[in-house]
Design goal:
By secondary structure, the chain is of the alpha/beta class. It folds into two domains: 3-121, Response regulator (Rossmann fold, 3-Layer(aba) Sandwich), CATH 3.40.50.2300; 130-227, Arc Repressor Mutant, subunit A (Orthogonal Bundle), CATH 1.10.10. The protein has eight helices and twelve strands. The strands form three sheets. Strands 2-1-3-4-5 form a five-stranded parallel sheet, sandwiched between helices. A four-stranded antiparallel sheet has the order 6-7-8-9, covered by helices on one side. Strands 10-12-11 form a three-stranded antiparallel sheet. Helix 1 (11-23) crosses helix 5 and helix 2 packs parallel to helix 3 (60-69).
Length: 230
């Protein structure tokens, strides 16, 4: 049974989310402040975190930042009343996997949880267990879900991993931002194409020594992105 960490200082909202997730068959742990949420997330006992941004103690943004800086790649769905595009881009740029704006439908939130967990479990269509590029400089092991660059294992979020594998198994193919958005969000794509730019930026920081002149993930201006493995 997968375990979900629900973090919200509004007890009523946390109870509603927990009830819907439990009905779906998940085990749920609740936290009501930032410090407790960070401590629980760092324990490694959770498969996904639903994280409110406006929390006492530590904000959701700060929690996400600290987890990602420490190499913790627990999938995170941010839950917030901040609905502007810039806020969404900021949250995704910090390493969140999805973003749900209050007020929200609990049923839709559960569907998004399921969608993110599907990204973690599988990447359909991979033709080989181990993908190698640039004479072994970049290695993607799809059985172990590990990515190594120059001999070092790189921690990727579920969304970053799916984007990388999708493009890497189709080298040279140009993907529009809309296509990539649908690949990582499915039926719940928000329509914010710029969110893909945030995920690509994060990928480049992890895989490209020179982000100004990327070797693997190329920008096709006015269209989207492509992967080159030479």
């Amino acid at each position: 049974m997968e375990n979900i960490l629900v973090v919200d200082d509004e007890e009523k909202i946390a109870r509603v989310i927990s009830a819907y997730l439990q009905k779906e068959g998940f085990a749920v742990t609740q936290a009501n402040d930032g410090a407790e949420a960070l401590q629980l997330a760092q324990s490694g006992d959770y498969d996904l975190m639903v994280l409110d941004l406006m929390l006492p103690g530590l904000s959701g943004e700060e929690i996400t930042k600290r987890l990602r800086q420490s190499g913790n790649n627990i999938p995170i769905i941010m839950l917030t009343a901040k609905g502007g595009e810039e806020e969404r881009i900021l949250g995704l740029g910090l390493g969140a996997d999805d973003y749900v704006v209050k007020p929200f439908s609990p049923g839709e939130l559960v569907a998004r949880v399921l969608a993110v967990l599907r990204r973690v479990r599988t990447v359909p269509g991979v033709l080989a267990d181990v993908l190698e590029y640039a004479d072994g400089e970049l290695i993607i092991d799809t059985l172990r879900r590990e990515v190594c660059f120059r001999g070092q294992t790189i921690g990727l979020t579920a969304t970053e991993y799916k984007l990388l594998v999708t493009m890497a198994k189709n080298p040279g193919r140009v993907f529009t931002r809309g296509e990539l958005l649908e690949i990582v969000q499915g039926a719940f794509a928000t329509g914010y194409d710029r969110s893909i730019d945030s995920h690509i930026k994060n990928l480049r920081h992890k895989l490209e020594p020179d982000t100004a002149n990327p070797r693997f993930i190329k920008t096709v201006y006015g269209v989207g992105y492509k992967f080159e493995g030479n």
